[in-house]
Amino acid sequence: MARQPLFRETTGWAVRSLRRAMGVWAGACLGDGDLFDAALGACVRQFRRAYGLPAGDHWEFPPCCGSPLLWWGTLCPAGIATPFWFDIAMCEIGEQEGSGKAVNNPRIVEYLQQFAHLNRSGLSAVDETAWCGAFVAWCLQQAGVASNDFLNGKYLAGAKMWLHVGKKLGDPVPGCVAVVHNAHAAASTTATGWHVGLYVDGDRSGVWLLGGNQGNKVCVAPFLRAKGWSVEGYRWPSGMTLPAPGRKGGR
Length: 251
Known about the structure:
The structure is a single chain. By secondary structure, the protein is of the alpha+beta class. It is 23% helix and 16% strand. It has helices spanning 13-26, 38-50, 84-90, 106-112, 116-121, 132-142; strands at 167-169, 177-182, 194-203, 206-211, 219-224, 229-236. Strands 1-6-2-3-4-5 form a six-stranded antiparallel β-sheet. It comes from Caldovatus aquaticus. InterPro entries: CHP02594 (IPR013423). This is TIGR02594 family protein.
């Protein structure tokens, strides 16, 4: 999917996600519609001014601050680019499971419906199905990543199997796929102890990941050594160019 700017009168899921993101950034309620209207345009103009971007009432993902990176209390580190799938994932922040088994978030169901085996079993209709891997795959698909490594594979619904796809990285870069494990599964946030998300930041104490099914929602969350988490691998989509080296972030 090309990086198309969103103008007035544009409609669709990207506008709906942007509306939610701008509302969080501005601390205002912009509603949940999918139309790029005057209210959203005004908020985008404010955002562009705040980040020193050229004036305008349209939205396009800038190369560094692809989304309002204020949601975890810090600005996007200068000189670090994020891939388009990371920008898309940022706009999904706040999606969460429905209350109880009878209520399912249709957005999470959309993540799960990529996988034929989950559709056949009926698990794709239930947002309580483990969906961290489905979320990562969905973001990559929306960004136009066409590698068979990441799309339509049965194993990609499971976090651990992301260790076997794409290119292995010795050091993480913002937006790369990160697989973590907690040996004390009963005390972790996943039943198996395995989890996958997109790398945001990290140091010796642990990593921060942007991912799905983190506390039953899409958010940025810490996976700390002190809590039993270890990083098992960093991966990069096959055929996709790694970003140019930049200043490393730090917490």
